[in-house]
Amino acid sequence: MRLFGNKKKEKNGYSQIGPPTGTVSSADPNENGMLGRLRSGLRKTHDKITGGLQSVLKPGARLDEDTLEQIEEQLYLADIGPRTVERICSQLHEACRDGELADAGGVIPFLKERIKADLRPWETGLKLPAQPPAVLLVAGVNGSGKTTTIGKMAMRFQKEGKSVLLAACDTFRAAAGEQLEIWAEWTGADIVKNESADPASVAFDAMDKALSRNYDVLIIDTAGRVHTRENLMSELSKIQRVVSKKLPEAPHETLMVLDANTGQNGLSQAVRFNEYLELTGLVLAKLDGTARGGIVFGMRDQIDVPVKFVGIGQQPEDLAPFDPDKFVDAMFE
Amino acid sequence: MSIVFETLTNTLEGFFGKIRGKPRLTEKNIQDGLREVRLALLEADVNFKVVKDFTRSVSEKAVGDEVIRGVNPAEQITKIVHDELKSLMGPVDTTVPLGGEGPVVIMLAGLQGSGKTTTCGKLAKHIAENYEAEPILCAADVRRPAAIDQLETLGRQLELPVISERGSDALTVCLKARMQAARQNRSPLIIDTGGRLHIDDQMMDELAELKKRIKPDQIYLVADARTGQDAVNSAKEFNRRIEYDAVVLTNLDGDARGGAALSIKAVTGKPVKFVGVGEKMDKFEPFYPDRMADRILGMGDVVTLVEKAEQAIEREDVEAMEEKMRKARFDLEDFRKQLKMIRNMGPMKELMSYIPFVGNKMDGVDFDESDLDRIEAIINSMTPEERARPQVINAGRRNRIAKGCGHRGAEVNMLLKQFRQMKKVMKKLTRGGMEDMANALPDQFTAPGGPMPKGLRKKSKKKGKKN
């Protein structure tokens, strides 16, 4: 969400972490290395696409209708959505009228502060139990990036020295189980799969194994589904029920993976998944493109589920904890 | 695809309603209405800049001379918005050019998770069924874990060969696939490339190189209908690097409003050619800008409804049914058959959505399919005799039927009562009713070559009342 294209290289934006290269290898787990990798190709295109506004917003420049309209446009292009954009813009107008904002230079700090204040109450850490296994259920629409996200989470946990079990409950899509299996190999996690079984029974077996073999973390992968298909959504509730029958407080986290490219449809996705699953968090995947993921902020007025992770590249390490301040800074960088 | 534009449709209808009440179009009332149109389009994820141009263009046309000369401002502005929507999305040729020497090569490209591999299978099935062609698939997505497995599984389902080579690079696999296609005398060769980010120079270079070496006859961009404002950025960048021929818009099931359909053509000049409307292999349709514009404006999509009916219903069945209705010999067995035919066309809610000015009112209405299940169950537990002559059903038979289908006796009675009423209406309609109905229609409908369904035209001719 880079609102105002900028040639300066900031230190803290997400946009600088993680390369979008598809090649597997040469991944430098070192944070600085990741920062470096991004600077190469991405910045130019980014500037080309989103640049242009900063000249208008120089300190001392007058704040006129034209400028405000351009700001509105940038907010729209970030997928924040009509309703929230209108709300922010009216706040901006008010601040102008009340003399709180004298010139264009104050606009960015003003917007940043407002949006950060909105996002800070989010509890973005994973809530894991003191007593293992921690059970995470991951859901989302087709193509949102669930399996990749799970692979990356497995990597994180393994690195923390935790034993990880994956449950391949996507028994619908051709070869989804294989994809998770490859991730299991990469990360050294174990996997429970059974392509001819129904998803809930795979979850049941995985719970059995996680409990009896004392795994630290169980991550359950589910098939991508369209949120308007009632029977498929009930199937998800069933998985959740089966899990909590085995362990009353599980799943400890129920996460929905949302593609950062998603527009206003993201809102109805989150509402419906939340209806069936009571989500505890979101993962914003594919934030390494030019899409700015503003939908997670835009939907906050209607459904308030915190973002816990952001996916910022194809490498197994490219999953970062969500940090509202960084997210907003990157948006206005 | 049916509920894609509901909110948009409702807003537009509100706008037209407001204008309809006005004696004439003024700049003021057009601007008020257009503000709402603008918001609705933005909610549908139509690109901001496209929305801006769209509203400006509609406003210019509406305020200009064109309308002042028009007799009915409301109709005129409906037409302006409709035409503008249509020209934003079209024109499009939904055929796949398959002529020429050697295997035709079609390459699919797009972002990760846009649905390329699934589209690859769907497109192959579409071509195999609608053209005299034997497609062959190539798994050139060598990076994504299990992408090759996925395409191979689809190939097995569709009984089509899939060329792949694990551990190889995309170019080698494609070259090998083209040789195989030529050797096996199959065409087209459909190449599934790996998903990539449009700003990933290295990966985009690879795609451009692939294009240069393979020289595909057609390149399609696969784009997700759920994409927000960024849809135009990736569409533009892919077009700059590989200049594709058309777009396949996926994930148009669910409630995605598909604003990308409006935006991509406007920004790249490349039309949407096909849409994917579900996970299953047959959920793949040609894209019709005209129908989509109709649907956006709440004009329904009767064309799709008729096409669905044609797929689900045998013509002879319909004619036999008509004959029975006319001779008042329509019994419960026929009723059961008719129910089945209608239900073969799809869920009731979806069917309703195609009907003009009804479809967009379906938001939140859940059509209870279980009513139909119940009717079927009751009829199913009747004997053939009871179905043919419902009047023989007495209290004893009724209880047996109720027990057999697991419903209450009262429900059986209700069905029988409804059926009797239905027959009465049918009698009235068929006893000279046909001509009355035909007479009531405007002439254009019954004129030769007019839009009247063939069956009805034929019948009125037979009776010698028309033509």
Description:
- The complex is a heterodimer of chains A (333) and B (467).
- Helices cover 43% and strands 13% of the residues of chain A.
- Chain A has 333 residues and is of the alpha/beta class.
- In chain A, strands 3-2-4-1-5-6-7-8 form an eight-stranded mixed sheet, with helices on both faces.
- In chain A, strand 5, helix 10 and strand 6 (281-285) form a beta-alpha-beta unit.
- The longest helix of chain A is centred in the C-terminal third of the chain and has 17 residues, at 230-246.
- The N and C termini of chain A lie close together (8 Å).
- Residues 1-52 of chain A have low confidence and may be disordered.
- Chain B is an alpha/beta fold and 467 residues long.
- Chain B has three domains: 6-89, SRP54, nucleotide-binding domain (Four Helix Bundle (Hemerythrin (Met), subunit A)); 105-297, Rossmann fold; 306-456, Signal recognition particle, SRP54 subunit, M-domain (434 Repressor (Amino-terminal Domain), Orthogonal Bundle), CATH 1.10.260.30.
- Helix content of chain B is 57%, strand content 8%.
- Chain B has helices spanning 6-20, 27-43, 48-63, 65-69, 73-89, 116-130, 147-158, 170-183, 201-214, 231-242, 259-268, 289-296, 302-312, 315-326, 332-344, 348-353, 369-380, 384-388, 395-405, 409-430, 433-440, 443-446, 454-462, and strands at residues 105-110, 136-140, 162-163, 189-193, 218-224, 246-250, 272-276, 284-286.
- In chain B, helix 15 (332-344) runs antiparallel to helix 17 and helix 17 crosses helix 19 (395-405).
- The longest helix of chain B is centred in the C-terminal third of the chain and has 22 residues, at 409-430.
- The model of chain B is unreliable at 1-5 and 432-467 (pLDDT under 50).
- The chains are: A alpha/beta (333), B alpha/beta (467).
- Chains A and B meet through helix 2, helix 3, helix 7 and helix 10 of A and helix 2, helix 7, helix 9 and helix 10 of B.
